[in-house]
Amino acid sequence: MPTLTASKKSNRSAVRAGRPAPELILGDLWEFDPAPESADPKLKARYELFIDGKFVAPKGGRYFDSINPANEQKLAEIALAGPADVDAAYAAAQRAYDGVWGKLPGRERAKYLYRIARLLQDRAREFAVAETLDGGKPIKESRDFDVPMAAAHFFYHAGWADKLDYVAPGRKVAPLGVVGQVIPWNFPLLMCAWKLAPALAMGNTVVLKPAETTSITALKLAEIFQDAGLPPGVVNFVTGAGEVGAAVMNHPTPAKIAFTGSTEVGKIIMRGLAGTDKKMTMELGGKAANIVFDDAPIDQAVEGIVNGIFFNQGHVCCAGSRLLVQESVAAKVLAKLKNRIRTLRVGDPMDKNTDIGAINSREQLDKITRLVAAGVKEGGEMFQPACKLPAKGFYFRPTIFSGVSMSSRVAREEIFGPVLSILTFRTVDEAIEKANNTAYGLSAGVWTDKGSRILKMSTELKAGVVWANTYNKFDPTSPFGGYKESGFGREGGRQGLLDYCKLV
Amino acid sequence: MARLPITKTPKVYVGGAFIRSESARVFPITGFAGEFFANIPQCTRKDLRNAVEAAAKAGPGWAKRTAYNRGQILYRLGEMIEARAGEMADAIMLGGATPAAAAREVAATVDRLIYYAGWTDKYEQVLGNVNPVAAPYFNFTVTEPMGIIGVIAPDEAPLLALISLIAPAITSGNTVVALASSTQPYPAILLGEMLATSDLPGGVVNLLTGFRKELISTFATHTHLRAISAVVNAEERKALALGAADSVKRTHLRKAEDKHDWLADSAQSLEAIRETLEFKTTWHPVGA
Amino acid sequence: MLARSPQAALQRLFDEVGSVDQIGVDERVAKYGTRSIKKASKIQGLKLAASMVDLTTLEGKDTPGKVASLCQKALAPHDPELGVPQVAAVCVYPAMVKHARRALGRDTAVRIASVATAFPSGQVPLKTRLAEVKAAVADGADEIDMVINRGAFLAGEFSEMQDEIAAVVQACGDATLKVILEVSELETYDNIRAASFLAMRVIRPGDFIKTSTGKTSLNATLGNNQVMLEAIRDFYLATGVAIAMKPAGGIRTAKQALTFLVAVKETLGDAWLNNRRYRFGASSLLNDLVRQLEKEKTGAYQAPYYFSEAAESY
Q1: Which chains does A contact via 3+ CB–CB distances below 8 A?
Q2: Which residue of C lies nearest to B286 if distances are taken between CA atoms?
Q3: Is cis: bond before A418, omega within 30 of 0?
Q4: B11-57, pLDDT tens digit by residue?
Q5: What are the pLDDT digits (tens) for C215-235?
Q6: Cβ–Cβ < 8 Å for A239, A215
Q7: pLDDT category, A382, cuts 50, 70, 90?
Q8: pLDDT band at A364, cuts 50/70/90?
Q9: Does A175 map to a domain?
């Protein structure tokens, strides 16, 4: 009778018998036809500023183009705000705070936020298409993640507006007043929701600047604010690049500043606000460690690694960009990871089957290209699947570097693209030390079957979010934010509201 | 002939040891009548750096102590001060406080420590929570100490204000490097002696004496200090905030120009503990 | 003794073959459902799925007439113009094998599969089970679908379970073997993965592992299909031995079948996208595949009564 050991032995010898190592054929025997999403994004040719409840032309009369990074075609013209426009936006926000929003009972503020959530759900597909066209992310992600999650944030925070007595135990809270916010281009609509929902629920009014490459969904959200009857001035959008952002951040009116973006810019903003006594929330960069132990459920870990670094082309501040694998399973994990990456579909973001879409801008593509070249130069072993990329538009193959040292640039700098660096470790302590050996501290992942080790790792990892046996999960109820140079303050959950109020 | 008393050489308490400034500099302080009282260490940037090293060494062990243990140690510190209340009141009176005011300050300091001793095993229950995410995950938010906290005490209430800034930070497992009142440093010298007998591990609280203008910029730019809790003037606030930007440091800067009632209950709070905490959220799938 | 307890034996096996996180698997397979299969790729997929069907009837009320009609459907699923391929096999009880052989004839590509080994419980003496296998093969069965001894597995008696499978392999002769794990009784993905490995180590290249009998509350799901596909992949990459896969029960719609095929494509690749390596154990699936092919051809949605009844009525 064959036994377990006997058959194992014979199998091993079969491989040893000089035959080539078995490989999977992850080919195109059954290829998928293009499956383009066809919903109408209902874009305007020109988007104005949204100030005091109205779309208004910029006082300087200047506009800039927003292009589709998937094909470099112009989508719309966006108003370029000047200092006078930012003044007008803040004046409107202050009027709205003093006159209406700051005085409105919480239960009434809640109803506006609920309405916004519902209207966004109504127009979900339209928003998803607009988001994908403007930012390059796969329609699958904007449809299944960005837009529903944005609606969920409004819905969740709506319910807090009349329950603020429960936010800070034993204390009453009050709104801060006018808040200035600047958000990045990686989750344009979702970041709008993350920033606006808690601020509005608490009773603040807002001036927000979207990223210059991705202004469209914010301005479409403004249409929803109009439909919802949100009082004029409660939310104001000013559009433009860095100098507009600086004007929003450095304006004397806001009592609080909230910024999501790079650590580099965050530090500039902090310097600019030094001496003003304004409250701040900073959600900055990351270089998260995703740690795989030898007893981990390997296939799910591989899935988590892929989700951790290739979600949204790696344009994610909490991306699991540093994979730390225990030496004994490193070869196995790498082999499985390569096979998984071979099945990723890179290309037209509007195709429903696309897993990795377009890089957000030429500038970002250049940065990724530069850092990857540095990785090659530093001796990392690079792997990219042999996928075809569209001729036009900004694309980058999913890329992994193995044999990377802790000191190499690809292991230390935030690349903000689909590039993974793989390092190995031998012991728990070594994993912790390597994971924490960074100025960042936004997130971390840990994969192991051992419960007590999960809790040990979760305790030791210096990061605001720890994903254990999962990665890149988000929820409006779950606070998000960093340790160390990844910023301060939290977004989401009860703790997120603490950053938009004062205790009285 | 009357016996000449032995006077004490004031030393600062750093890393569990009593030291002079590495610079060997001192500054004299006088009694209320203007008579010479003692020479106080005039600590330097290097002393501050050494204190941060000591705090870094002590931090992990302190943070790993059980909350119950930290509570007992804070309580013990209260006992030590209470036991030497008269001596401490005398130290406060050097700055001109009346005997009654000095006694009130000492008593309030002890009470403040007892207040925070009680919080060590409770703040987590109030500040953390489970989050009902819309997916099959168990998700919970807990707090963790930030690390090394820089404290800059105001000149007034030289004992009570200092403790009011230090105690909430160490309640959760942070370690502290504190600059005492420049004008009335002696109570901090005495406090060091009480810390040394309180079971508080060496390096958890490090007390420096000296001048703000010499040390503010180092407090601001030392990247290993993860937060600054200070009572400072406008110029100092700007300097601290500018330096903090370089390493995204958390700053909790109270205005020196405002009137602070350190004796009031409002000078102690759960929020003061929260200011030196990070929130950490962990996700785990719920499956079989 | 603790070391000999079923739990200890299972734990050692999990340590050896690796563990599975349930939520991770469920999230992975949810992504297959978002693949959008259109136009030519849809037609190709529908035809491929039809060619993989083990057209099944496993009812107490089966008769020679019912089996003959099933065989007819297997040979010619629909109007030849639509180009629906013949199915891979018919799947019947052992007593019906000879009737199926009579209906299909000797000269056919459609194979006869039979559920021997005291299907679905397997709870008779091994001797009886082996006799049943031999009888079915003698009557003309090309393939034998056996059930594993779940009791032995859960009790940690792995060699008993494997020895029984090996005995059935011997009894099969040239017939292909499909080993039914009965996943709903194994309950966890960890158990399904472990049982897959135990089975694969004693069967032959080209033999199958199969999810379920279709007689319990939970049958083939994308999740347990995925766990078994990954076990097959890992076994293949480690040994070079290619084991085939058959999800059975619960796959009723063309859309479901296409999603299962996406899982095969992205987990095992092109070498498994054929009916030697992948099958669907199903009865009503074939008609829905044909119905969708008709819709692709005409552009009109089709009423069910345009398609001849297979094993189950709509």
Answers
A1: B, C
A2: C23
A3: no
A4: 999 999 999 999 999 999 998 888 999 999 999 999 999 999 999 99
A5: 998 899 999 999 999 999 999
A6: yes
A7: very high
A8: very high
A9: yes
Tell me, yes or no, whether A278 and A323 share the same domain. Answer: no
Residue C166 sits at φ, ψ, to 5 deg, of -60, -35
Hey, which residues does C176 pair with through a beta bridge?
Answer: C143
pLDDT for residue A338 is more than 80: yes
**What three-state secondary structure class fits A77?**
strand
CB contact under 8 A, A465 and B241: no
Task: Tell me if B281 and A503 make a contact (CB, 8 A cut-off).
Answer: no
Question: Is residue A387 annotated as part of the catalytic site, yes or no?
Answer: no
Q: Does the active-site annotation cover A283?
A: yes
Rounded to an integer, what distance in angstroms lies between the CA atom of residue A281 and that of residue B60?
27
Read off the pLDDT of each residue in C158-174 and give the average, rounded to a whole number: 97
pLDDT of residue B1: 73
CATH (residue range C14-306): 3.20.20.70
Residue C4 confidence (pLDDT): 67
C313 touches C280 (CB < 8 A):
no
Element (H, E) at A182: strand A178-182
Instruction: Compute CA distances A148 → A123, A142, A196, whole Å.
Output: 10, 8, 16
- Written as six digits, the tokens of A65 are 């183009």
Number of domains, chain A: 2
CATH number at residue A354: 3.40.309.10
Of the candidates A192, A317, A318, A501, the residue annotated as catalytic is A317
Check A1 against C268: CB less than 8 A apart. no
Cα dihedral A49/A235/A158/A156 (nearest 10): 50
Regarding whether A391 and A243 lie in a shared domain, the answer is no
pLDDT in tens, B207-222: 999 999 999 999 999 9
How confident is the model over A253-277, as a mean pLDDT?
A: 96
For chain C, domain boundaries: 14-306
The CATH number of B12-285 is: 3.40.605.10
Provide the pLDDT for residue C190.
96
> Which residue range is the domain that position A333 belongs to?
289-468
User: Do residues A329 and A201 both lie within one domain?
Assistant: no
Considering only residues 435 to 454 of chain A, which have any Cβ-Cβ distance to chain B shorter than 8 Å? Answer: 439, 454
Q: What string of DSSP letters covers chain B?
A: -PPPPPPP---EEETTEEE--TT--EEEEE-TTS-EEEEEE---HHHHHHHHHHHHHHHHHHHHS-HHHHHHHHHHHHHHHHHTHHHHHHHHHTTT--HHHHHHHHHHHHHHHHHHHHHTTTHHHHH-EE---SSSEEEEEEEEE-SEEEEE--SSSTTHHHHHHHHHHHHTT-EEEEEPPSSS-HHHHHHHHHHHTTTPPTTSEEEE-S-HHHHHHHHHH-TTEEEEEEEE-HHHHHHHHHHHHHTT-EEEEEETTS---TTSGGGS-HHHHHTTEEEEEEEEE---
Q: What is the pLDDT of residues B65-118, one digit of tens each?
A: 999 999 999 999 999 999 999 999 999 999 999 999 999 999 999 999 999 999
Q: What is the pLDDT of residue A3?
A: 38
Q: Are residues A209 and A296 in the same domain?
A: no
Distance, in angstroms, between A75 CA and closest chain B CA? 35
